[in-house]
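**User:**
Make up any protein.

**Assistant:**
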Amino acid sequence: HLEEAGGGLAQVGGSLRLSCLASGTIYFIGSAMNWYRQAPGHAREFVAEITALGVTNYDDSVKGRFTISRDNAKNMVYLQMDSLKPDDSAVYYCQTGADWGQGTRVTVSS
């Protein structure tokens, strides 16, 4: 089970921090964790990944602005989002393997 939190309304240039708690049968410490997002009328798209060893990957659209991190002691993964743009508005999902969270909505207002 994955549960996201931290979405909300931000202004252009502002910041938000998303969190995702993994529980249940997910083997968190050995799993790569990903963030995806889906804007209205658009397909779900990859945002960022952090591997079990802590290696990170980002979509070019967020590189340099977003930072993914994990806390294995808490079974948590985070997405720090800075310099937000209106195009960042979407529902953000946490994912690992076949597991998806329910999503948390981010709205960036100009």
Summary: Residues 27 and 91 are 25 Å apart (CA to CA). The mean pLDDT is 96. The chain is about 0% helix and 50% strand.
